[in-house]
Amino acid sequence: MGKLSGITVIDLTQFLPGPMMTVMMADQGADVIKVEPPCGDPARLQEPFDTYDDTEQSVWFANLNRGKRSVALDLKGQAGQSALRELIRSADVFVEGFRPGVMHRLGFDYESVKALKPDIVYCSISAFGQQGPLAHHPAHDMAVQARAGFLAVNDGPDGTPVVPGAASADLAAGLTALSAVLMALLGRDRTGEGAYIDCAMFDSLLPWCVHTAGSAIAGGTSPVSRRQRSLGGAGFYQVYKTSDGMHVVLGGREIKFARNLLTALDREDLLPVAEAPAGEQDELIAFLRETFATKTRDEWVAWFADKDVAFAPVLDFREALDEPHIAERALWIQAAGGGHHVAPSVRFAGEDWIPGKVPGLGES
């Protein structure tokens, strides 16, 4: 019995933000009914594939839709609309990820769904929200990051923005939507009233800039990466290349870490530079670049083993998933039928987690 057992979720979302939100609910026992078009969620076709319950499935789809039930409905037809209405009457949560206006045209906007289930918690996930100048503008994650200012500081040494490695706007929206839905369910327990949630990827991502965009938030100029403590302006929050062409990072700016490392390297004279403002640490960064270039990545891992310094090797995903830490915490597991899952980050002490079955299209 998971923490959300007894909660029924109608999930009309595809790709990443919505499915990430609802799989977290399914992992905790919610009955998530994934409503797919007759052709299925496009993520079903995304390579690579693995074997789940003796069936080849997309790894992406499997990891974001395990434990759900699948119902294939054509919502443009009367039969599909009638079937969805029946599902809504016994649901607690309704989640959709279409562009603004689509649900109204289909007859499943909040007011229409509320008429069927007065205490429904209804969540719309979109790029820029249901109202505003950008509400109808198409966008996926990177475009949202670009408009929110984040891509400008996701840049290389020459200031050129690069494609981000994490879909931060998608992920922020999924977590924000989950938090909002759980808050609404708690409120419903007290008042008996449901809620409507307008969750925008843009709105969800924006608050995460407060530690880097302070100057702009205060009404001034935008931050420049090379002058920011967390964006490349500090020697002890920096990426360094090793002699074998690999990379390591220093990931803690506290002076105790600087003291420990610079003492071990016999360069205590650079401590004042480590305490200088970001953007004024070029001497320290140059020394550390020269130093890290003298050993391989793995040699540095061994060298740092007995040092209290926030240091880490830069691993690729294969290396990361094969780390003993991940095995010890059972974060990457092999499920029945051979398929692999990344375990949920939310797990409760004393409770075992077993991944739910990955549904075929229309499979309950």
From TrEMBL:
Keyword Transferase annotated: yes
Keywords, comma-separated and alphabetical: Transferase
InterPro entries: CoA-transferase_III_domain, CoA-Trfase_fam_III, CoA-Trfase_III_dom3_sf, CoA-Trfase_III_dom_1_sf
The EC number(s) this enzyme carries: 2.8.3.-
Gene Ontology molecular function: any one: CoA-transferase activity
Residues of the signal peptide: none
Keyword Lipid metabolism set for record: no
UniProt cross-references to SUPFAM superfamilies, sorted A to Z: CoA-transferase family III (CaiB/BaiF) (SSF89796)
Pfam families: CoA_transf_3
Alphabetical list of PANTHER family matching this protein: SUCCINATE--HYDROXYMETHYLGLUTARATE COA-TRANSFERASE
Protein name as annotated: CoA transferase
